[in-house]
Amino acid sequence: MATLPADWTPAAVALKGRTILITGATGGLGRASALACAEAGACVVLLGRKVPALEKLYDELEALGGATPAIYPLNLEGATPADYEQLADTLEREFGGLDGLVHAAAHFAGLTPLREFKPEEWMRVLQVNLNGPFLLTQAVLPLLQRSADASVVFVEDDPARVRKSFWGAYGVAKAALTGLVAMLHEETENSTVRIASLLPPPMRTALRRMAYFGENTLDRPEPAQFAAAVVYLLCSEGKAARGQLLDLRTTH
């Protein structure tokens, strides 16, 4: 279990010269991470399915005056292995490689008993939350391995919560993701690619509102409060967290 150093804040050049791909870039934590990475000097590639939202975020990042960001529209629900290979080819052609990958995309269908879970929705949730992270990581791994210091960050969820009744395919996907992270770490621990995962506390997000519709989500912290932890795992200082879970719940 890793911990974020006390009062740690990213330096303005913490990610300078690095190309970082963020999935779910217009979501809560994805958007906050994109802004934080750009502020730390990274060239950020925004991956998401809603082009207008991606374009709006692109403008925000460009206004920061750092490296020029990029947009890559892709709907993970229907993405195929060929789509991920094409993405990897584009990254190599346009940026010359890749130094970091943040899996911030998530799809949650709502709390549903397993006996009532629609098969199509089950497959859709697994595609975004489990198959997508695997296939994308596999496709870009050769690019990451060419980087002098690369990192892959997976966003996990509280196992004590999502492995209980009614969390359905989302809970199953997050449980399997933990195993995927462990395997990837063991298979890359002697390379320049670092694998780590992040466990934020409950945040003010759309997913939280769907799961706890009776809760006042405004009482929860904004995802932006935890974006620095993403930068930490991506930058050279994050080597201390290699193969570990950075649990942010203890401080909130």
UniProtKB/TrEMBL annotation:
Source organism: Tahibacter aquaticus
Any one GO molecular function term: oxidoreductase activity
Keyword Chaperone: no
Signal sequence interval, chain numbering: none
Protein's name in the database: NAD(P)-dependent dehydrogenase (Short-subunit alcohol dehydrogenase family)
Family from the record: Belongs to the short-chain dehydrogenases/reductases (SDR) family.
InterPro entries on file: NAD(P)-bd_dom_sf, Sc_DH/Rdtase_CS, SDR_fam
Database matches in PROSITE patterns: ADH_SHORT
